[in-house]
Structure formats: structure tokens, C-alpha cells
Hints:
The structure holds 2 protein chains of 2 kinds. By secondary structure, chain A is mainly beta. Chain A has 3 helices and 10 strands; from the N terminus they run ββββββαααββββ. Chain A has helices at residues 137-141, 144-147, 151-154; strands at residues 38-45, 55-60, 85-89, 95-100, 113-120, 127-132, 160-161, 167-168, 171-172, 182-183. The model of chain A has no long low-confidence stretch (mean pLDDT 96). Chain B is α+β, with helices and mostly antiparallel strands. Chain B is 14% helix and 19% strand. In chain B, the strands form 3 sheets. In chain B, strands 2, 5, 10, 11 and 12 form a 5-stranded mixed sheet that branches. A 4-stranded antiparallel sheet of chain B has the order 4-3-8-9, with no helix packed on it. Chain B is globular. The interface between A and B is large, with 76 and 91 residues.
Amino acid sequence: MSTKLVPTPGQTVGPFYGYALPFEKDNELLPPGFPGSIRLQGTVYDGAGHTIPDAILEIWQPDADGKVVQRTGSLVRDGYTFTGWGRGAVGNSGVYTFTTVDPGPTKPGAAPFISVALFARGLTNRLFTRIYLPEDTEALANDPLLGSLDPERRNTLIARRDPDGGLTWDIRLQGEGETVFLDFQ
Amino acid sequence: MEDINAELESEELVPPAEPKAAHQPLDKAIESQADLSAEITAIGEAYRRALKDGGQPEIQPRLDYPPYRSSILRHPTKSLQHADPETIELYSPAFGHQDVHALESDLTIQHNGEPLGERIIVTGKVLDGDGRPVAGQLVEIWQANSSGRYIHKRDQHPAPIDPNFTGIGRCITGPDGSYRFITIKPGAYPWKNHLNAWRPAHIHFSLFGTEFTQRIITQMYFPGDQLFPLDPIYQTIVDQDARDRLVATYDHSITEPEWALGYNWDIVLTGPKRTWTENEAFGTAGDSIDEAGE
């Protein structure tokens, strides 16, 4: 009974998910303009520094109070319920955009972050990573993952705060400034 | 369903392509299948030697697999960083019948007429690493039609579009982790990785587990496909046993008389690390696990 089953391997999402995975308001965890909402945006780059037009991101995060929400309604949004999950395909310019809220810390003193799964043509399996908020330097300094990284690599996981209160966080799949991707096994 | 279809038709459904010189390959690539097959074979042999010398089986695709040309600039060059999943990563988003209508699992009834091709039933279970069913989670599929063409503006393969087939389905797993789709067997289709590159017939699957770390997108293939050894995407998984896990089994007990052939394909997610709550174990609809968060 203790035998572990071997996981099914992943495969690339390919180029033709465009009519299957995206859905209406998939990148709006909250409607734009909702009190407390922010824009989260960024660009996905390949190893040559070119933008990738066929990547798709999913984000999953606690609410502003740090609570893990377990509410249905991510695919058919009612405009009011925050479910914590969103999906956004990049446009032709490789830019993704979400409307969401700053995540809260799930434990006192913990550094809040948004969890990310990234898919793209040419990417043979999904990649996981995290988007940390830039502000709470003490929490960031105490974060176990960030603490395990060289300072230069660590910064790839920390978003910039925009003048409008939003967050900008780019993904580099390869090369200089390569984003840190995670293995949870 | 009507809303979905209306949106698809306005945004993604394209008119049939202008007739092309049908037998003139559009591929700019000059590399032949023989070139690519030699690369695939060399990588496979090196892997089998390493395995013989005590190497660990590779159960996931290689991120760096040069025969799949698009992966060359898109694979991370640094090792994945080990992380212990934290609170948010130990949960998955919740989906329920608010999100997915029961009819979305039948890809053959989304339009006014019957799609062309071989009607099939694809069914199986979504399990975690301990063999426990993953209940109440979202399964999404998409695929080409029976001619090997996607309803997608960037798919310009000169094969017919089927006006009665969109090729997208969704369902929520049952209490026993089971899913079931009725669809049409997809056709093989050409792509531009190299000259005369053809993908084996496949259905894309997107799955969630009980933790975000179990998120997976993969492809289900059909048994006995002659294109397996030639396909750089299928071969990104260098281990034969691991590759075999993506191939469905023809199952005559699933086949329905006078109607559809049946295939079984079980999917095992990674994990688990977190103890299930009672709500999740019995959350057949997903609707019942609202507010189950800590």
C-alpha cells in the first residue's frame, strides 16, 4: 500500500491553446478599478532577449489579509468574488497583465508572494516561480527561499512597485537575469 | 455553451484558408527528419548508457532538448531551485459546477451538426502519488479535429476546418477522481520544427491537484502511433517507461456498441505533501469546499 505511483510527465502547452485555456476576464481576479485592486504586469523574454508571444501564466495567491481563499468561480467570474486564481496569456508583445490585490502574509512576519505557473510553446514542462512584493525588507530578508539565493538571482523574484501602485515583474527564461524557477520535490 | 461558442466563433474561428499549392511544403527548415532522428537517437542512447551506469530514471521531460528547436532559447540554463512549498502553494484553486457545465465534457454536441471523424470516449482517473483520487478538480482538454487542424488563427495547415468541432472540453473530476470526455479522434498534423515534421495524434490535458505544486499540462497520445520515434516533443521525455505513461490504452469495455471506441488514461499527479481535509475528500462538486481554507 505504501508504493508510490510515478507521476505522469508533463508536455509543452504548444502554440494552439488560444481558444481553449483563455476565458473571459481570466486575468481579472478583481475588476479593474475595484477598491484596493492593483495592476500586475510584465514581459516574458527568451534567451535572445526577444519577447515571447505565446506564453501563458497562471497566478495563485492569498487575499489581502493573507487568507487562502477556497471559493469557486475563477472561470465564470461574478465580478465580486475574489478566488485568488487567474490566468493570462501574453499578447503579441509578450506582455501579461493581471488585476489583483497585494497578497497578505499567510503567517505573521512571512514575506507575501504570488505563486506563478508558466507555460509556453518550446517550454517542455511548466515552470513554477514566485513574485514577492518589494516593500517589507525585513520579511524579505527572513524568507527561506530568498535567503537561499545569491543577491543577483534573488532580485529576479521581487517585483518593482509602479508609480500607479501596481507591480511590474518580468520573466527571463534564459541568460542574463534568468528568473529563478522552483522545484518543490 | 452558446455564449462560449459565440465568443469562439467571433474571435478564433477562421474561415477556411485560401487554397494552397497543397503539396508544396511551407517549411523554411532545411533540416530533414533523418537529421532530427539522428539527434533523437543519440540523446536516447546516451540516456540508456547513463541508466545502465546507475543513473536515475528521468520521469519528466528534459527542459533542454535541442531536437525540439523552440526549446533552445526557452529552457532555463540554471538548475531549478529547491523550495519547500509554503501555505499558498499547499492549496489549489477551487473549481466547481459554477465554473464548468456538465455538457462541456462532450465535444461532439457543441454545434448544430455532428463532427466528422471517429467518435471516441476518453476516460480515466486523476490520482495523487499515493493512488488517492483527486476529486472536484478541473480537467481541461483541447485538440485538433479529425483532419489534424486546430480552430486557431495561427494554424494554417491546409486541412479542412470542421464547422461542427471546436476541440475544447472541460469537466470536474468526480468523487473517485474520474473524468470522462466524448470527442473525436484527432488527426496527426505537420509543424515546422524541421522539414516534414508531423506530430503524433494527441489531446492536450490541463490538470490541477490539491496543491498548486501539482499543476500539470501534458498530452495524451494514442497507442501504436508510428510517429512516436520521429517526434521531438514526445521524445523530450527520454525514458521509455515515462513516455509510455502518456499513451492511452484502448479498452473495449469502455467502447459503446454502435457508437464510440473507448480509451482509458489515468493521470498521476506529483505529491502529496498535505493531509486532505474531509471537505476535499468528499467535495464532489467543488462547490462544497467553499470556505475550506485555513
